[in-house]
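Lab meeting minutes (informal)
Scribe: AK
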Amino acid sequence: MQRRLPIGISDFKEIVERDYAYIDKTLLIQEIYEHGTKVILMPRPRRFGKTLNLSMLRYFFEKSAVDHSHLFINFNIWKQEKYKGLQGQFPLIFLSLKEMKDADWETAYGKLKLLISDEFARHYYLLENPELLPREKLDFQEIIDRIASQAIYENSLKMLSKLLSQYHKRNVMILIDEYDTPVISSYLNNYYDPMMNFMRNWLTAALKDNSFLEQGIMTGILRVAKESFFSGLNNLSTFTILNETFSSQFGLLEKEVISLLAEFDLMDCLEEMRKWYNGYRIGSKTLYNPWSILQCIYNKGQLQPYWVNTSENELLKQLIIQGGEDLKIELEQILLGQELEKPFEESLSFESLAKGNSEAIWNILLFSGYLTPSGPATYKGIPKCSLKIPNLEIASLYNSIIREWFTASIQARNFDLLLSSLITGNMETFISLFEDFLESAMSYYDIGLEEPEKIYHAFILGMLISLRDTHEVKSNRESGYGRYDVMLIPKDHDALGNIFEFKKIRAQEGKDLNSGALSALQQIEDKNYKHELQERGIRKILCLGLAFQGKKVMIKYK
């Protein structure tokens, strides 16, 4: 009998007791405990099972009035005899910051106080301890009542760990889910400084030189730089997507996806689902996005972007829109299937991001799952790795963002008409719309750069990327006796193919737009750029010579 799918459920107890489909990741318990590191940070992309894994760790380790050992009997960890004795043995603090997405510091701080208050209230029995000092009782009650000073809240995790350890006579596990969500939100909403100050003081107090700490375990998306966040926290070990440790415990391996597809009679969908949702390289392993797999199975194999529709892509959009010209150009190259080698740092400084550091932007795209390494990172000299888009789902997100850029300057209906007139050869309509489009949309790029041809090239590529479902878009490839600028290759070989050649007109050279466009068109003919299309069996070919001067354009075609 098919199990139910745990859509939107991340509580391990509920999933097991109500017999939802679950892929066994319980050996993460063994891996973490045997690793022996005092504080572990495991950054992973969104929707990769972080909250569920932390919930599983909580039910395994936490000392509770309710016995939770039955939750693990049928899973791999219970086959490890020595770990049975660890189940339910540790006092534990659990906090999830995943909903900390507030518009201002006052609201965010209020929510932090509420989360801390709720966790203290969960351990209200500690007030019965006769060893508590009057000052500790007062601070405890003020935290629950949400009237304590900020200094007391900043010390609250350390305080609670001390009181738990004294009561239970055992050191404390501290689990924090999505630790960086409030930091990212504060960056997006301009209250970064007060949030960083609070988080730095709060977590450092709890995790640095805390004699009551057994182990601290945190998940998030990004590793915030030590110097700005975990200053002096020398006992922290971080295991990112570039590390082998814990690599198979977040996300789904193909064999795990196959087991789910077999259970739900969807094995015929595997090949297409691989194109859409696989491709995330973590350590040496390639994994699927579990959120999208569950959604796709729930929808009987319907392929569509599930992960990117979670309305949590604001940071990506802001970074790309505010990014420089080189970033836009290079992203468009990646969208065309090219790989880019980029230096990386496994930690992120939001200060450098605020200064427009393009390398910091590439870091975020990599560690957030919007790009993935195509192979192992190299650490000779400056650490580098080659980046690519992992799958069709993520490609669709970039397509939608690029479309937003363009349709902000031209009505969506006219943008669609612009593209359809191009691929059907209705050049009168295409030229009219394109001239208007160029005038309004070119402000997105800086046409005063030293290499303006690159900007026009990127502009055309960005426009054509929306056609990737029906056409292959290529640029700067050899064909015939030279390199064409852009080629639009229809997947239907009976349809029209397009070749673009660009000329930038400089007034000081004495040329005009008309002669420049004719020269570009002649170059397509002279260098036999049609050769690649003809080799593919495409006989209907439209050649376009485009001459640009500022925001003016002349198009000749044949």
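Next up, CB showed the second protein from the same session:
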Amino acid sequence: MANPYRALLEVPGARVFVAAGFVGRMSMSMVGIGIVLLVSAVTGSYGIAGSVSAVYALAFAVVSPLLGRLVDRRGQGRVLMPLGLANGASLALLVACAVLEWPTWTLFPVAVLGGVTSPGLGAMVRARWINVLKNGPQPPPAGVGLHTAFSFESVLDEIIFVTGPMLVSLLATTVHPAGGVLAAGALTTAGCLVLATQRATEPPPSEGGPAGVAGVLAVPGVVVVALAFLLMGGVFAGVEVSVIAFTEEQGHPGLAGVLLASFALGSCVAGLWYGARVWRSPLDRRFLAGLALLAVGVAPLSLIGTWPVMLAVIFVSGLAISPTIIPGYGLVERLVPAPQLTEGMAVVSTAVAVGIAVGASATGRLVDGHGSRGGLLFATGAGLAATAVALVGRSRFRQSLTSDKHE
């Protein structure tokens, strides 16, 4: 059988927009920890550092769906060029505020500026895949579909979330505390500028789609997917924070990165497998099954008492991540009108980010009071809640999905 991923990258224009998107969204796993490392080094306060990082993330979460709507209406090229430059400049200004020891309060409005100019490139790249595979000048290669493209992007996301924190930590500790933030800004700007020039693969702008403040959230089923993704973010945050606490309890704090990399590796392996298959089952059934498997896979983690066992079991737990996220994005593609694709993708991406932020805070409190086991039980609970949401809301999917929409 031919390699579907090689065939996918043979689609005209795909290699360039994939590379630009990968480079540009490296910063999504770098900025948060980069801000913490920079601000804590300058102020000596992790509390201030965490607050500045949280403000950046919150500003991004609030504005991202609105930027997605703007991109749908004006086109990626017209939005990405100024947005990429503004984000790079904002992060450079944040570094200046910290390094030049300006009043602490100045860090917060600049962090807001950085957050609102942060582009949701993951949503834009997925929108391009939909455009080239469904509306391109030639049909996609045999055996290649949206699930292949979404699988590929899911694997790239996992690579980003594993390598980004390592890169920013290396730069901040060996070059300069500001190195990670500056690198993140440079990568975002470069990715945006290159992606903005790729007009042949850009989805055409459209003024269509339902109007109103709610946007895509007025579409039946989108709220269900977004809420499930938010709870999945709680699972990811619960596992990440709890694993850090677990390795400290075991006396091996340096192994936290190894265990979390194993979690991500499981997702990568499953994502590649998922994308190489041709699926006939409905998207909503696959999404529900993935959520259930994620909850079941995370549940045993709270019972483990040694790190070698955790290393193996957390890999198995990670196998459910990509096969859940991929049909989730597929559902959004089917539920949302074509003129609102980028906004729809941005909404679910933002939901995960919000879930991670809220989940990290909740897990931290549980870990303080009950150790890593309490945090891992929270992750299991979030997974079960996500499954329940998808199960109860499945009828909303059926309102918009037809029997031939099983891609």
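CB comment: Residues 341-392 form the longest helix (52 residues).
No objections, moving on.
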